[in-house]
Amino acid sequence: MTFDELAEMLERNPSKSLGQGACETEIHAANVQLGVTLAGGYRLFLRRFGWGGVGSIELFGLGGDVPPYLNLTEMTRSERADMSPSLSAHLIPLMNDGGGNLYCLDSRVEGEPPVVFWDHAAGAQQEPVQVASNFIEWLAARVARETEMDGDISRGTPPSPAGRGSG
Fold first, then answer.
1. Which of 29, 34, 108, 112 is the most exposed place for a label (fewest CB within 10 A)?
2. Is the distance from CB of 143 to CB of 9 less than 8 angstroms?
3. Of 126, 150, 133, 132, which is closest to residue 55 (Cα–Cα)?
């Protein structure tokens, strides 16, 4: 899937909540503040939307209209400095799973970083599990599952087993 196809999937979803996008200055400032390079599909997402998601998917991001609880630089700072165990400096949080765990980009990989799952109960020395080879693949799969579950619920049927999961 291309980023443009993902963007179209997000934009046509009735439960979308998307920002106005982040400018290069905001992205550069976040790179400097976080000590990482925001790259690949996530950088494209930041430029186009800034922050947002669909349904229960809420992605951290940047931009003048980002809600405080989704502000990437503030959430990353908090996860690195205020939480125990602290988030490793090479991880860029994308989304909280609602239980204190995070889906993150592994910035040690240049170009198109993989998405990993950071489990707060596994401790600071953990090697997070890769859940997708890149941001676009990960978000497309999450949105497809969210959409399937929403459709099942609106029809009054339980979600199919394929619609569940942590990835």
1. 108
2. yes
3. 150
